[in-house]
């Protein structure tokens, strides 16, 4: 297999989480920059990364990178790249683009130059003047930053957050990738209980269950590169077989969620059923004031309403105070709260153990982390002292 330069794109603030996922797949030649995790791998990694990365947005093949301050430099640099090695004669190859802090600031003009250069490159290989573009889809991106052009191919297609289990959505759903990131950042273990008292369409409980059972998030969907000859079908079969072999569905899970919105719970139940996890999750219509998580050393991981988009700000303050009351009744539990409201600590009645800036879409938030006094250490000690529990 050949050596390929890949990029896993990442939401702002989650680059380190995505990098950890890439390394967990066995790829250790990793570098991180804003919004992107670069790694060197092979064709099989295209399949494995798409199937397994829970917190990345998509997986790109880097075709080349070079300085481009003029249209001539952009054209010649693009034309010199090995496009025919990847793109067959009848493929569809649209060009997308973006430019930041670069002399070539007209994105449509750059897209046109790149398209023309790729056509010229392919003419030389395929000895034809016309490309019908009726075959597999290869989305090309030209990204200009500080006068450096990066040309990529998108192997993913629809974003990685589209797992395939959500057919309906609520008014302001949390992306699956962000929900998975919250679970991973909490360091939750599947032997511990987990509760989301503002579960909405159930994304956090579902993603937690998938992590608990080591279910690859991409198993129920297809990807753009599955139609590419350069990534043959047997590599996708190998990656999927590996993923099925690694499922640990014999682990009992204690994952629950509730929400005051009955329509949201209906959506959550449908999504859990589609994900094959309906029997593993307890999802109920319940206000946060009446929520009573069971067990010890659990994690509350939640994305309460923001007020700017949902409900009234006064109501938001009320329910966060109720969440603080829940925390006071659960001394062995840790709480992880994603929210843009800068008054969260005031409403919770105590300062967070740790805060981390994240972006939910374009909304700047903080992940407020409240660690239990015993924390993970307390849970592990209890397991050692009482191995049967």
TrEMBL record:
<dbReference type="InterPro" id="IPR002052">
    <property type="entry name" value="DNA_methylase_N6_adenine_CS"/>
</dbReference>
<dbReference type="Pfam" id="PF22020">
    <property type="entry name" value="RlmL_1st"/>
</dbReference>
<dbReference type="InterPro" id="IPR004114">
    <property type="entry name" value="THUMP_dom"/>
</dbReference>
<protein>
    <submittedName>
        <fullName>Ribosomal RNA large subunit methyltransferase L</fullName>
        <ecNumber>2.1.1.173</ecNumber>
    </submittedName>
</protein>
<dbReference type="InterPro" id="IPR029063">
    <property type="entry name" value="SAM-dependent_MTases_sf"/>
</dbReference>
<dbReference type="Pfam" id="PF01170">
    <property type="entry name" value="UPF0020"/>
</dbReference>
<keyword id="KW-0808">Transferase</keyword>
<keyword id="KW-0694">RNA-binding</keyword>
<keyword id="KW-0489">Methyltransferase</keyword>
<dbReference type="Pfam" id="PF02926">
    <property type="entry name" value="THUMP"/>
</dbReference>
<dbReference type="InterPro" id="IPR053943">
    <property type="entry name" value="RlmKL-like_Mtase_CS"/>
</dbReference>
<dbReference type="InterPro" id="IPR000241">
    <property type="entry name" value="RlmKL-like_Mtase"/>
</dbReference>
<feature type="domain" description="THUMP">
    <location>
        <begin position="45"/>
        <end position="155"/>
    </location>
</feature>
<dbReference type="GO" id="GO:0052915">
    <property type="term" value="F:23S rRNA (guanine(2445)-N(2))-methyltransferase activity"/>
</dbReference>
<dbReference type="InterPro" id="IPR054170">
    <property type="entry name" value="RlmL_1st"/>
</dbReference>
């Amino acid at each position: 297999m050949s050596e390929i330069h890949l990029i896993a794109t990442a939401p702002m603030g989650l680059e380190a989480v995505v990098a950890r996922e890439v390394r967990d797949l066995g790829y250790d030649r990793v570098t991180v920059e804003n919004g992107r995790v670069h790694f060197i791998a092979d064709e099989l990694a295209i399949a494995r990364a798409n199937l397994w990365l829970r917190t990345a947005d998509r997986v790109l093949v880097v075709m080349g990178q070079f300085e481009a301050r003029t249209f001539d430099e952009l054209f010649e640099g693009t034309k010199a790249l090995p496009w025919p090695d990847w793109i067959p004669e009848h493929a569809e190859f649209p060009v997308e683009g973006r430019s930041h802090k670069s002399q070539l600031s007209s994105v449509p003009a750059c897209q046109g130059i790149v398209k023309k250069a790729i056509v010229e490159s392919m003419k030389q290989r395929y000895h034809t003047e016309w490309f019908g573009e009726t075959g597999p889809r290869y989305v090309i991106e030209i990204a200009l930053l500080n006068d450096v052009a990066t040309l990529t191919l998108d192997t993913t297609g629809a974003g990685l957050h589209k797992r395939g289990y959500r057919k309906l959505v609520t008014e302001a759903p949390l992306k699956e990738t962000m929900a998975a990131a919250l679970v991973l950042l909490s360091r939750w273990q599947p032997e511990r209980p987990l509760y989301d008292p503002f579960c909405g369409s159930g994304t956090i409980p579902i993603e937690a269950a998938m992590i608990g059972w080591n279910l690859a998030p991409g198993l129920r969907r297809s990807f753009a590169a599955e139609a590419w000859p350069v990534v043959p079908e047997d590599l996708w079969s190998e990656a999927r077989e590996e993923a099925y072999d690694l499922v640990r569905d014999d682990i009992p899970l204690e994952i629950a969620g509730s929400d005051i919105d009955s329509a949201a719970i209906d959506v959550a139940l449908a999504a859990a059923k589609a994900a094959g996890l309906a029997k593993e999750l307890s999802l109920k219509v319940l206000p946060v004031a009446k929520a009573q998580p069971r067990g010890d050393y659990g994690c509350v991981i939640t994305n309460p309403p923001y007020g700017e988009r949902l409900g009234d700000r006064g109501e938001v303050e009320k329910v966060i105070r109720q969440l603080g009351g829940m925390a006071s009744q659960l001394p062995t539990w840790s709480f992880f709260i994603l929210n843009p409201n800068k008054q969260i600590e005031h409403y919770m009645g105590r300062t967070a153990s740790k805060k981390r800036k994240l972006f939910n879409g374009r909304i700047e938030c903080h992940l407020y982390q409240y660690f239990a006094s015993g924390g993970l250490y307390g849970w592990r000690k209890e397991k050692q002292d009482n191995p049967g529990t």
